[in-house]
Amino acid sequence: MGAGYSSDALLKNRAAATSLTLRNYNYSEYKYQAVYGRINYDIKSKYILNLTFRRDGSSRFGEGNKFGNFGAVGGAWVFSDEKFVENNLSFLSLGKLRASYGITGNDQIGDYQYLDSWSSSTFPYGGQSGLSPARAFNPNFSWETNRKLDISLELGFLKDRVSLITSYYNNRSDDQLVGQTLSPQSGFSSYTSNFPALVENKGLEFDLNTQNIKKKNFTWNTAFNISFPGNKLLRYDNLASSGDASGYEVGKSTRIIKGFKFTGVNPNTGVPEFLDVNRDGLINSAGDWVVLGQTLPKFFGGLSNEFKYKNLSLDIFFQFVKQEAPTIDWGPLAGAYGGMSNKSTAVLDRWRNPGDITSIPRATVTSTNAANIAFRNFYRSSDAVWGDASYLRLKNVSLRYDLSSLTKRWKIAASSIYIQGQNLLTFTKYNGLDPEINGFDRRFVFPINPFGSVKTSAMPVLRTIAVGLNISI
Amino acid sequence: MKHIIIYIFFFAGFLFLGSCKKYVEVDPPRTSLSDELVFTDDKTAESSLTGLYSTMNSYSSSFANTQANFYPSMSADDFHVATANTTSDEFKENGLTIGNSVVSGLWSQPYSLIYHANAVIEGLNKSTTVSLAKSTQLMGEAKFLRAFFYFHLVNYFGDVPLITNTDFLINTSLPRTKADLVYDAIIQDLLDAQAALSDNYPQSERIRANKGAATALLARVYLYRSQWDKAETESAKVIDDAKYVLQTNINNVFLRTSTEAIWQLQAINTSTAGPINTWEGYSIIPINATTAPGYVMYPNFISSFESLTDKRYLNWLKAYTPAVGPIVFYPFKYKVRTGTVTEYSMVLRKAEQYLIRAEARAQLNNLSGAKSDIDEIRIRAGLPILGAGLTKDQILLAVEKERKLELFSEWGHRWFDLKRTGRVVTVLGAFKTAVSTDDQLYPIPLNATLTNNNLVQNPGYF
């Protein structure tokens, strides 16, 4: 970077700068090579068969690991074209069954990860440039392979006025290229490696489109979709002795969150209490954590309705998610009840007198009070602050009047006026800032570090109302 | 069958793929060097070590600047963050939790630096082309730094995993090593460093370790291990070294030209936040005279001055009068927030060596020798010398007090002193509500215990 030029006109001439600072220098080289073969077999557009094969090479892998073989087989059957269907199920306008199974590869990691290298320090020390170890180096990793199974059924009824697409997918990978967790005492937090675990991602998706009313001046279309995602850790070699021992459980989702099990506020003292899972008389993270839930939604989807009367059209879109999430008091930055910081109105239900039955601990200003200690050590990382974050949200409403017929005479191709609102209504029982962003910094929610920080400066989802005039010439 | 259409695409290249390997070969990256290349010549080998110093002090909130200098001071009775802050209040109230982000940094950053030091040591050991003189010097510095990092780890956490190589797959699951053995390793590294390093600094300023730095740290370690005679011997070597002279003007102690300095960290990242000098000064000194300081001294620190003519009270603290409430003081050893670089971060300085020798001599019942060392510090501070006829216990308390007033806000000295003399509960309990013996060790951070099942948590933490 140059500075102190005598004229703006000289900006491109670095020799004209009175001072030059080297800010950064980045260089990397990446080479990729693939050969590809495909067989496409199609009979009367009724029976379709696809076969592909490819061999890929990538410079991101070390010697002997650069190449991978991948391929896929897929087939489709348009059974609505079969005579027996046409004769017997005449309401069926389209019936198509598709299935595919394939193996795909992935080299989406940084360059040179397999090299043991030193990179230059940002700042010289004592006038000498410095070098630092660039990474925990592992030369032995190779292509990530994903085995993907997809099955889908497309149905159209009543001349395609109703269409339904049902899909199922099941993806498995046992060599994912991820940062393998290291304990910080090793000097690094992770190293690049093929994950020694079999992870399954599967899901069921429905997509329904209907034309409810189709008149000359009035149409009403509805679209509805819903997805049920699933994720499971099927196998993990030597999990107990790995850095992930606390983060994962075989047979459970890879997106589980662990913490203490809240058993209630002691009615006599107001101190929150927790389950001693291993019954050793102590509550601690080593022995008493349970799975609180997972960050993967149970299901999610949307419902959209589109009405059109002459030049006036109205779109209404609802979004819904069934999920769990950390709530407002989650994480190490959450202050105990009684501190000099804002709290949610839940504070009004706190324990005040012996005999009070409540799930909100007592307030206290002294950090040495048992309630304060329990809050900081257990409560803010327990299921007391983990909860339902499902919501139904009126995401978008748009009302538009098409003026094209009026403005045609001025040679304007299309014009319209509209009013549009986003995030107008939300129905949720979530105890937090916003169920869509969880009022919580998602970066910190991953299994190995269930303690996250509360988003103190989070931008909530904005309610926006826009009025506009659209003119296309 | 006339409707059957078959497409077949085959690239002949398939068959030749074996010979196309070179298309996915890349040249080594231009921004980094492979392990073998680093340790082929003196220049790059030296860079591998200057990189370690550079990493230590590149950015604010690092172990080797504000974290090690500020947070243990809050655990003790030096200074604390002025306003409510969940993370630092846990230090102030001696109520740390395992998720505390600074504790996590105090654990993982030294280990990251230790990896770097181990990589330098291994690289030098394997190298046949780096000159013997250079190799010896760099090895000495790397071992000195490794000892310095372990010294802090063992004083924060007690038993810590002792990692002396770069085999991260093994090291990641090592259990904690007994503190005694960690200390043995520290002493061995320092003895090696002392033998390897020259009296001269590798560069014109005192920003890298020489023999004096290794000796000074060794004296401190012997003191902590109650090896009084060795502590006295080693500190005497530094005190008798003509290179090191107490600054008579107390305002010059923390300058980059300070003759009292044994080891300083150079200001290197001077551009990120304006021309900063030290991250400590940049963090503590308010941006202007009307801004309230972010860090304030504990009130009882101020009351422990026996005289308000103490030059340390007058020059190393600065008062701020808020609109409401009492006057507060903040550390003012570093006097530059931003500006031309006149100050470096002090790591080791001669005044500490006098106090090490005073304590060692007192323990060895050389009370007059101890008194004369304490008096060196008192005279420089503008105080009268100690009265005659003090008992051993009185001398030891006098050392403790001078250490408190002299070394506050530097590298957690006060916290470590209270710990090693077993006086955490007695001293801090007098004004903090619930300090227990368990609080003397920081908790092993959650991200360490979660990723290594062999780490057993310290008592009193959950």
Question: What tags apply to this protein structure?
Answer:
heterodimer, A: 473 residues, mainly beta, 13-stranded antiparallel β-sheet, 25 strands, 46% strand, B: 462 residues, mainly alpha, Serine Threonine Protein Phosphatase 5, Tetratricopeptide repeat, two-stranded antiparallel sheet, 20 helices, 8 strands, globular, disordered N terminus
- The whole-number mean of residue pLDDT values of chain A reads 85
Radius of gyration of chain A: 30 Å
Strand order of the largest sheet of chain B: 3-5
**In sequence order, what are the helices and strands of chain B, one letter per element?**
EHEHHHEHHHHHHHEHEHHEEEHHHHHH
Helix content of chain A: under 10%
Q: Report the sheet with the most strands of chain B, covering strand number, pairing sense and barrel closure.
A: 2 strands, antiparallel
Distance between the termini of chain B: 75 Å
What portion of residues of chain A belong to β-strands? over 45%
Overall tally of domains of chain B: 1
CATH architectural category of chain B = Alpha Horseshoe
Structural class by secondary-structure content of chain A:
mainly beta
Radius of gyration of chain B: 26 Å
How much strand of chain B? 5-15%
Count of extended strands of chain B: 8
What CATH first level of chain B would be assigned?
A: Mainly Alpha
Total individual domains of chain A: 2
Helix and strand sequence of chain A:
EEEEEHEEEEEEEEEEEEEEEEHEEHEE
Low-confidence stretches of chain B: 1-19
Number of strands of chain A: 25
Would you give an account of this structure?
The complex is a heterodimer of chains A (473) and B (462). Chain A has 473 residues and is mostly beta strands. Chain A has two domains: 184 residues, no CATH class; 217 residues, no CATH class. Helices cover 4% and strands 46% of the residues of chain A. Chain A contains three helices and 25 strands. In chain A, the strands form seven sheets. A 13-stranded antiparallel sheet of chain A has the order 3-4-5-6-9-10-13-14-19-20-23-24-25. The longest helix of chain A is centred in the last third of the chain and has 8 residues. About 4% of the residues of chain A have low confidence. With 462 residues, chain B is mostly helical. Chain B has a two-stranded antiparallel sheet with strand order 3-5. A two-stranded antiparallel ribbon of chain B has the order 4-8. In chain B, 48% of the residues lie in helices and 7% in strands. Chain B has a single domain, classed as Serine Threonine Protein Phosphatase 5, Tetratricopeptide repeat (Alpha Horseshoe). In chain B, helix 16 packs parallel to helix 17.
